[in-house]
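It is worth pausing here to work through a concrete case rather than discussing structure prediction in the abstract. The textbook approach is simple: state the sequence, then state the predicted structure, then interpret. We follow exactly that order.
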Amino acid sequence: MTQHSRHLLLKIRKQARLLALLMLLLTLLPPAGSYAQQEPVDVQAVFDAMSVADRVGQLFVVSFDGADPAPDSAIAELIRDYRIGGVVLNSANDNFRNVNADGSQADTPEQLISLANRLQALAFDGALPPAESLNPLTTDIRPLPLPDGRGVTLPLLIGIQQEGDGFPNSALRSGYTPLPSNMALGATWNPVDAAAAGKIVGHELAGSGVNMLLGPALDVLDAPRADPKTSLGVRSFGGSPYWVGRLGKAFIGGVHAGSDGQVTVVARHFPGQGSADRIPENEVPTIQKTAEELELVDLQPFAAAARPSELGDLITTTVVTDAQASAVTDALLSTHVRYAGLQGSGEGVPPISLAPQLGEDLLNSPLFADWRGQQGLVMSDELGAPAIRSYYDPTLQTFPHKRIAQEALLAGNDLLWLSRFSLDDDPETELANIKDTVLFFREKYRADADFSRRVDAAVLRILNLKAGLYPELDLVNTLVQRDETADQIGGQQAVVAQIARDALTLLSPSPTELGQRMPTGPGPEDKVLLVTDARLGRECNAEDCPSFPLIDPTALEQSILRLYGPDATGQIAPDNITSLTSQQLSAHLAGRPTTLAGEEIDRLIDEANWIVFATLDNDPSVPGANALREFLTERPAGRERKRIIAFAFNAPYFLDATDIAKLTAFFGVYGKTDPFIEAATRALFREFTPPGAPPVNVTGINYSLADKLRPAANQSIEIRVPDVRTEMGSNTFTAKVGDTLRVVAGPIYDGNGRIVPDGTMASFKLKQRNDPFELPLGEASTTDGFAETLVTLERPGDYEVQVQSGQAQGSLSLLLN
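Step two, the predicted structure:
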């Protein structure tokens, strides 16, 4: 069959499916007197046709266990009878799997498409059999009895977390493109890379039936902690408010471009938890910053994401639809953190997600008022998180579920995420609490006018959000055809491989010194020992849910042999390369038995002239996490005759200066998926010069981000007068006395050789040659690396305009006739 014939057949099948869907939809329409869909969507008309149950139900997004939304399941009951507005899917709840029980890779895209289609069918009072759920022809969709008082039917929001760097931050892995972490994107300092990553996410989620992304995280990691239990790690774009905002906006624009506007972006963790001294999981942390500090640092990326802009404002692209994609976040996810500068710091102070300051002080502030007025939506974080349970009752004896949901709504949240919504994590108790909460809200809506107005405002925002996802709010537009999206999911590894190379960073030593210590990579006669942190992860709690290594113990070895082994360049012999796990090495150094004989480990160490460590973090609760540090301390003998290389596949700040001084080289990789392992391999063999730079402070190499973002002192800032004609070959300007000249200085570069952040100050002054008098022209802030001012010359003469930004200077002579 020719390619044209295949495309024609697919088109015919699609038309047939659409026709069948339309016929089915006629059987699933609401009863007489209820709303009939219009084109374009009339949100107010939809709202007016909604019953109290419809309106209240739309407020709730729930998590649920299992992957079978049969008509008699608990999730089907919540969707149909309680009218919930959305779900959040997670492998931890066994909604899908990336790894089969036997350890093989699962077909996750098929699982997700099937589940999403079946959930959406339930939202429209239909049951879709599992066998027909991948490519639904809809003739097999069985209409279900209409619930009492059915008003309108609406698509579900189907949300997922997909933050990059594999498990646990990316929910979807098997069959999907391995995504870069946010910090890897931060290390590229390139909005084009951020947009490319976002585009992959949007494209693949839309092709899987997912229409809501819980991310990206816009937290500013201004003071990173070398404690993995309190740090966001690679989930943050970095420590610069400007760059977190710029890269975050590019990522958001990419998601919208890749999904053709059919994936909602929920930026988290508003208003920022980068300065928290613990992750707000088991306890509500307090951030001790003033309101002014919060506005200058933590809030800035969220404010940037709320300002009107398009992707074309951030990057240059020839794809018109990409350039026009919105770079504005659709929603914000409020976090369970208290902010002393806004709320006070006592233990009785609620987290901002449940506090009136969320709506009154933050959402109504000048930073967000316009976005909020344009139907910007706020979603709560999980309202059953252990931190919330212990806040309401430190003794963990009671769980006031109705009060929690009510206070979250009144604080300013529009979507309420009812997840882990019980004290004991019992599914039956959680289901009962969700039902009870929905019924309580219905009763209160009817009895309390103020409450009903708050519900109505939230529902209108939710309806506007859903109306922006689909041309019509019907079943036809929500179902996904696996045959038509097969080429849409996975297959973008080349894009991520380039991002991984752009991010890879030489942390120590300097490039010049590296050339002396390590002029080439390992050669044919070298013995190479690879030590990989192969700690295990597990994506669900079911008995048949297997554990798997976060980095395969032989991943680096396989990468080296594939690129430089006998079947490639022949630079390395398979017999000369051996892999250990950091768990084996750590146990051996501590005198504990391992799966490999101690004498064999000693022999491998002694014979190796290259020892390469693939590290993650220094979590003391993880066996082997500190194997590199233990090795550097316990095995000093002969170390100077070996090249010891460390690759940080997580954040770059877990080693101290003493540890780093003992290494031949230390590289920041910022990700542990295959494209990043390959980038590390190529860097080991000196195939390219790592171009990345740390987007956070790294105290172990005395790297201060604030210092690096200042204007580089060794540059001469160019000054131009763009609107005035000059005589050829001179700087003599044709202008009249009294003319006002626009003087532009830039581009101004920072210490990493990149454009300085917007808002960097530059001061201008004017002086006449042979005259000591100088006239200050004031300061101007940069935009995209340029600052400008106006100069009015009142008499002829030989002038000089000077500019200074930080320690960088520039000047321009103006000869006015």
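Step three, interpretation. Residues 3-27 form the longest helix (25 residues). The chain has three domains: 3-488, 504-705, 719-816.
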